Amino acid sequence: MPRSERLRRTQGQLSVDHQLMRFAAALKRRRVELGLGVGDAARIAGVHRSAWNAWESGMKRPMDSSLRGIADAMQWQVAEVQAKLDGTEPQRFAHRDDQALWETGEREGWPEEMREELIRVRREWEARARARRDPDQQAG
Predict the structure, then answer these.
(1) Residue 91 domain-assigned?
(2) Closest to 73 in 3D by CA, of 28, 23, 6
(3) 2 lies in a domain?
């Protein structure tokens, strides 16, 4: 395996693995959001500081065995870490309306707490509407 997955030799030129670079940027952005230093994040993840630095710089892709530690350090789900590595976004919610609310809020730059509150209120209203439609179910 080459020293770096970020750079690949193609017809004599180096090309950047953009997906890995996006992951590296997301990892660093989240660590800073959480107010963690590199050493703190590495300790929580159970890896050496040099491994964390390699991930944040995009020089190395984390091994699958490190994903749980990254998720713990960044307060993400393992599926979120994997999706970020794959260049996709995981479905956070089973209900499509919750997912749509979350994604809209993300695009608009709403804080995570606001998005969570909106989803909670949407679910509450849905439960009330269900109860009005079927009052017998409420009593059972």
Answers:
(1) no
(2) 28
(3) no
Q: Residue 77 maps to which CATH number?
A: 1.10.260.40
Residues in contact with 6: Cβ distance below 8 Å, sequence separation at least 6, in sequence order? 16, 17, 20, 21, 58, 59, 60
73 closest CA partner among 110, 24, 27, 106: 27
Full residue range of the structural domain in which residue 79 is found: 7-86
In tens digits, the chain (140 residues) has pLDDT values of: 444 444 555 544 445 588 899 999 999 999 999 999 999 999 999 999 999 999 999 999 999 999 999 999 998 888 788 888 988 766 667 677 887 888 788 888 888 889 889 989 988 998 898 888 887 765 54
- How many domains does the structure of the chain reveal? 2
